[in-house]
Design a protein that fits this description.
CATH topology: TIM Barrel
Oligomer: single chain
CATH superfamily: Luciferase-like domain
Shape: globular
Structural class: alpha/beta
Number of helices: 9
Strand content: 5-15%
């Protein structure tokens, strides 16, 4: 199982010197990958519901100076040698399809094949409108079409594509990505459309456990959704074994409630031995990658949490 940590894209810890230290020292500790979130702008008035809070309110702490996701990923690629780089997630309609495919391919080449493309359709209508993205109501269709265009560009010597939202022909697209046939595509989200998108085009499903509308906070709930994913994958004409599993945990330890919404034990709650047991249980279910959001208002505090996690939890695996 690969273990990752969240690299800040906003706020004081995203300052170049802090971000660099977190990435370099996280790599040295033995973490396998870092994750990077995606917002281009944060509107000052947001009516859209944030999917990962009980109130639907976008966390106040995220309203801070923020880097562009793919440029930050490229920056960290240059500072590290082994760490994989995961977009967590890239909002696919935010960037024109051919440009985004080129940026991602360039990152994969310059990093020596260390990119994983986590994708989502997006949730913030106001941001779509502010940056001139395609129609928010069509974001699912746009996402599916853009991903098909990415794969065409990444894998074909003479790429051509005609769709409703993107079309191209008579172009040379190179370099191709280092990873073959292309960088892994992890589909984020917990809803029915996200599961269906994973079943059709994903290399892995990459949910977060804290979506109130589709909670995955207990082992039983996660198992039930894996069963659902396998059924959808088979119905899409693909081998369910071809679709991997990844998982993102945003809070862990004794500071979180020990009970999930279904009355079962909450995943990643409790003491280090209990967290390690959860990790082993997910590994047995086929989860190949698992990342955590470590707390800390300073670099030293965050690195301390990361080091303690390695010493108290990872050593028990």
């Amino acid at each position: 199982m690969l273990i990752g940590f969240n690299a800040p894209t906003a706020g004081p810890l995203a300052a170049p010197e802090h971000l660099t230290r977190l990435a370099i020292e996280g790599e040295a500790m033995g973490f396998d990958y870092a994750t990077f979130s995606d917002h281009v702008v944060i509107p000052t008035s947001i009516q859209a519901n944030y999917p990962y809070s009980a109130t639907g309110e976008f966390p106040a702490g995220t309203r801070a100076e923020r880097h562009e996701q793919l440029i930050e990923v490229a920056f960290i690629a240059a500072k590290t040698t082994r760490l994989r780089l995961v977009t967590s997630v890239m909002v696919v309609p935010h960037r024109p399809a051919v440009l985004a495919a080129k940026m991602l391919s360039t990152i994969d080449v310059l990093s020596g094949g260390r990119l994983t493309v986590g994708i989502g359709a997006g949730w913030m209508k106001e941001e779509f409108e502010a940056i001139g993205a395609p129609d928010f109501a069509a974001r699912g269709k746009v996402t599916d079409e853009y991903i098909k265009a990415f794969i065409e560009l990444w894998t074909k010597d003479k790429p051509r594509f005609t769709g409703q939202y993107v079309s191209f022909d008579n172009i040379d697209f190179s370099h191709k990505p280092v990873q073959k046939p292309h960088p892994p595509i992890w589909v984020g989200g917990e809803s029915g459309p996200a599961l269906r998108r994973t079943a059709r085009i994903g290399d892995a499903w990459y949910p977060i456990g804290t979506n109130p509308a589709n909670p995955l906070d207990s082992l039983a709930r996660f198992k039930a959704n894996i069963t659902r994913l396998h059924k959808l994958t088979a119905e899409a004409g693909r081998d369910p074994k071809a679709v991997g599993l990844a998982f993102r945990c945003t809070a862990l330890g004794e500071k979180v409630s020990p009970k999930a919404g279904d009355g079962e034990r909450r995943l990643f709650s409790g003491k280090p031995a209990e967290i390690a047991a959860d990790m082993r249980a997910l590994r047995d279910l086929g989860v190949g990658s698992l990342d955590f959001g470590f707390a800390g208002t300073t670099v030293d505090a965050m690195l301390s949490e990361m080091a303690q996690f390695q010493k108290s939890v990872v050593k028990l695996l």
